[in-house]
């Protein structure tokens, strides 16, 4: 690990305005410390934010919930309010990592974790995300776990979070604090970016900008289902995951939210599929049509071709299960 | 000097902030229990309790733990009296080479508390949190055993957990 200066932050005001490119915020460290061991991340200064007063979950406005950035993945998944009203989020969190990691990993850190692309982790291989301009080893290499939507010739990595997929489906928003102390808000959907020509940038955060927390609006009606397809039944990243909230009334889709994980450089909100389903009969045929609309631009790179039919089938299965469950609960 | 507590004993932290909690523990005389397996948070051999919750000691900078309480495998039993989980692992032959065992037992110890607290897992259904083989398998997925003693590990944890639920 490269040497660095360590500074424990007692209050956000202590973050100086020049906290920028060469500094990293440290919270749980479950991803950052690992990346520093590999010397993929080499910050000159670590600003330890883990003792800030940002570890609370509070009731928000209009039936929403305010989640501090330091709330652990375990704390968020176990919260009685989350389990009852946002079960999609609880399920997604529990589908990720292990208990040891969830006990330490934080809400903000989970959003900012980096891809698990093999070429990103292997410093002997080319990777545009790690070293811009080096080339992408995955494009013509081993790409079983890689993106089928929104990728570029520079990068076909995927975002690994399960939690973020649920948050995107739930229209969650991140609260941000810039290094100069100003604050702004963004939908989680707009936090992560597609790789384009700058795959080294995972998010739209500015240098020194800190995630203060995530706000969940009141959940939409309907059944919440998070389904994760992976190579092992536990402790593996998603090949494809689907988070959906479906409400069916009189056999028709009243409201629907869908997001995919494991298919793109960011959690993928399936707005085309949602639009195709709105007001339509909740039938298998329409679910298939919606999946096809969303996946029309999907592209495989050899090793991950299987993800296109897998994403289609997983989405249809989730919608079918959700429709059955909402019909049963509203006789 | 910055300190943390390991099984009730005050320990001075290294002044190199790169030192992980795992390396801090490994360098303490007499604390050979906690193991370095992968050193990347994938195998669970370094599992210890940090302020009562199980964590991977290899992924935590020790400097972050100033003032915290760490419990290692050496802190679970009392003297020569093994903890009931340790006894169950011996009884059920829940290991072969033993390298992953301290991590397995620290992890299982915390896992039984998490179940007692009603914390859900990925396999918890609407009936609520209950001790079962499926729950143990899911909740212990962060502890690998290269010898493949999993079947006996599950038996040992199940037995120890059931005793805790209904002490006779």
From TrEMBL, chain A:
Q: Where is the FAD-binding PCMH-type domain?
A: 1-221
Q: Which Pfam families match?
A: CO_deh_flav_C, FAD_binding_5
One example of the protein's molecular function in GO is: FAD binding
Any idea what this protein is called? Xanthine dehydrogenase YagS FAD-binding subunit
Is Calcium included in the keywords of this UniProt record? no
Whether Endoplasmic reticulum counts among this entry's keywords is no
The record's annotation in Gene3D superfamilies points to: 3.30.465.10, CO dehydrogenase flavoprotein, C-terminal domain, Uridine Diphospho-n-acetylenolpyruvylglucosamine Reductase, domain 2
Q: What lineage is on file?
A: Bacteria, Pseudomonadati, Pseudomonadota, Gammaproteobacteria, Cellvibrionales
Listed A to Z, the keywords are: FAD, Flavoprotein
Q: Which domain of life is it from?
A: Bacteria
Which PANTHER family does its entry note?
OXIDOREDUCTASE, XANTHINE DEHYDROGENASE SUBUNIT C-RELATED
From TrEMBL, chain B:
- Where does the 2Fe-2S ferredoxin-type domain lie? 1-76
GO terms, molecular function? 2 iron, 2 sulfur cluster binding; metal ion binding; oxidoreductase activity, acting on the aldehyde or oxo group of donors
Any Pfam family the entry gives: Fer2
Highest taxon of the lineage? Bacteria
User: Which keywords annotate this record?
Assistant: 2Fe-2S, Iron, Iron-sulfur, Metal-binding, Oxidoreductase
Q: Which SUPFAM superfamilies does the entry link to?
A: 2Fe-2S ferredoxin-like, CO dehydrogenase ISP C-domain like
Which named protein is this? Xanthine dehydrogenase YagT iron-sulfur-binding subunit
């Amino acid at each position: 690990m490269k040497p660095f200066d360590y500074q424990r932050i007692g209050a956000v005001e202590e973050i100086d305005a020049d906290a920028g490119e060469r500094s990293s915020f440290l919270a749980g460290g479950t991803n950052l410390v690992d990346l520093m061991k590999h010397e993929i991340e080499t910050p000159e200064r670590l600003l330890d934010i883990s003792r800030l007063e940002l570890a609370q979950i509070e009731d928000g406005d209009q039936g929403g919930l305010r989640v501090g950035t330091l709330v652990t993945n375990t704390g968020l998944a176990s919260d009685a309010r989350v389990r009852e009203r946002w079960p999609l989020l609880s399920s997604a969190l529990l589908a990720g990592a292990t208990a040891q990691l969830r006990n330490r990993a934080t809400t903000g850190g989970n959003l900012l974790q980096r891809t698990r692309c093999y070429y990103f982790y292997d410093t002997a291989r080319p990777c545009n995300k790690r070293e811009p301009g080096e080339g992408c080893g995955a494009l013509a290499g081993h790409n079983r776990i890689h993106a089928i939507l929104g990728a570029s010739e520079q990068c076909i990595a995927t975002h690994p979070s399960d939690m973020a997929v649920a948050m995107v489906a739930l229209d969650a928003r991140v609260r941000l604090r810039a290094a100069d102390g100003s604050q702004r808000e963004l939908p989680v959907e707009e936090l992560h970016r597609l790789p384009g020509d700058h795959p080294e940038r995972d998010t739209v955060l500015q240098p020194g900008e800190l995630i203060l927390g995530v706000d969940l609006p009141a959940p939409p009606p309907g059944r919440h289902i998070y389904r994760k397809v992976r190579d092992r039944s536990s402790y593996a990243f998603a090949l494809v995951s689907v988070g959906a909230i479906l409400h069916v009334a009189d056999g028709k889709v009243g409201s629907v939210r869908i997001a995919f994980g494991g298919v793109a450089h960011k959690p993928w909100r399936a707005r085309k599929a949602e639009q195709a389903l709105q007001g339509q009969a909740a039938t298998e045929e329409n679910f298939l049509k919606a999946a096809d609309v969303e996946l029309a631009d999907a592209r495989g790179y050899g090793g991950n071709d299987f993800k296109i039919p897998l994403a289609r089938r997983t989405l249809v299965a989730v919608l079918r299960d959700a429709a059955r469950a909402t019909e049963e609960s509203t006789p | 000097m910055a300190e943390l507590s390991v099984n009730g004993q005050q320990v001075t932290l290294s002044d190199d902030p790169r030192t992980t909690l795992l390396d801090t523990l490994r360098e303490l005389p007499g604390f050979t229990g906690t193991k370095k397996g992968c050193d990347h948070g994938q195998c669970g051999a370094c599992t210890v309790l940090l302020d009562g919750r199980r964590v991977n000691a290899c992924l935590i900078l020790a400097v972050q733990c100033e003032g915290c309480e760490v419990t290692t495998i050496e802190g679970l039993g009392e003297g020569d009296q093994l903890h009931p989980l340790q006894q169950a692992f011996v009884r059920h032959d829940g290991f072969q080479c033993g390298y992953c065992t301290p991590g397995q037992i620290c992890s299982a110890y915390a896992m039984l508390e998490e179940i007692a607290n009603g914390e859900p897992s990925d396999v918890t259904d609407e009936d609520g949190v209950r001790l079962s083989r499926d729950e143990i398998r899911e909740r212990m997925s962060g502890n690998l055993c290269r010898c493949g003693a999993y079947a006996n590990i599950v038996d040992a944890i199940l037995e120890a957990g059931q005793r805790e639920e209904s002490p006779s």
